[in-house]
Amino acid sequence: MADANIGSKNISRWSLHGMTALVTGGSKGIGYATVEELAQLGATVHTCSRNEAQLNESLRQWAAKGYRVTRSVCDMTSRAERKELITRVSSEFNGKLNIIVND
């Protein structure tokens, strides 16, 4: 759980342990930061991107930090690829998806 110091008080931030999240466009920019924040708070995250090389590099960085992140190469403009993504996420998370962020 992450902590924030405000004045002389130590305030614990919320925990996302046991939660699952899907973040589209998670290999760079705001999507990358979203994946990192959710994982840092304890969520298991699945992310996708069209760029496999960039996605693999991001996954390597998250793994080095000990984050639980899986990935798919997916073009969200393709109906067939969206269906495949949802099938994979449903399987990985045993049908339990708590958070979805479209970036």
Any chance you could write out the topology, listing elements then pairs?
Elements: E1 3-6, E2 9-12, E3 20-24, H1 29-40, E4 44-49, H2 52-64, E5 69-73, H3 79-92, E6 99-102
Parallel strand pairs: 3-4, 3-6, 4-5
Antiparallel strand pairs: 1-2
Describe what you observe in this structure.
With 103 residues, this protein is an alpha/beta fold. The chain has a single domain (22-102), classed as Rossmann fold. It contains three helices and six strands; from the N terminus they run βββαβαβαβ. The chain has helices spanning 29-40, 52-64, 79-92, and strands spanning 3-6, 9-12, 20-24, 44-49, 69-73, 99-102. The strands form two sheets. Strands 5-4-3-6 form a four-stranded parallel sheet, sandwiched between helices. The protein has a two-stranded antiparallel sheet with strand order 1-2. It is globular, with a radius of gyration of 15 Å. It starts with a strand and ends with a strand. Mean pLDDT is 90; it is low at 4-11.
Classify the beta-strand content into a percent band: 25-35%
Count every beta strand, where a strand is a DSSP E run of 2 or more residues. Answer: 6
Largest sheet: 4 strands, parallel
Under CATH, the homologous superfamily reads NAD(P)-binding Rossmann-like Domain
Assign the CATH architecture: 3-Layer(aba) Sandwich
Q: How many helices?
A: 3
Main sheet: which strands, in order across?
5-4-3-6
Total domain modules: 1
Please write the string of helix (H) and strand (E) elements.
Answer: EEEHEHEHE
**What is the CA-based Rg, rounded?**
15 Å
The residue-averaged pLDDT reads 90
Assign the structural class, choosing from mainly alpha, mainly beta, alpha/beta, alpha+beta, or little secondary structure. Answer: alpha/beta
The CATH class designation is Alpha Beta
| Helix coverage percent | 25-40%
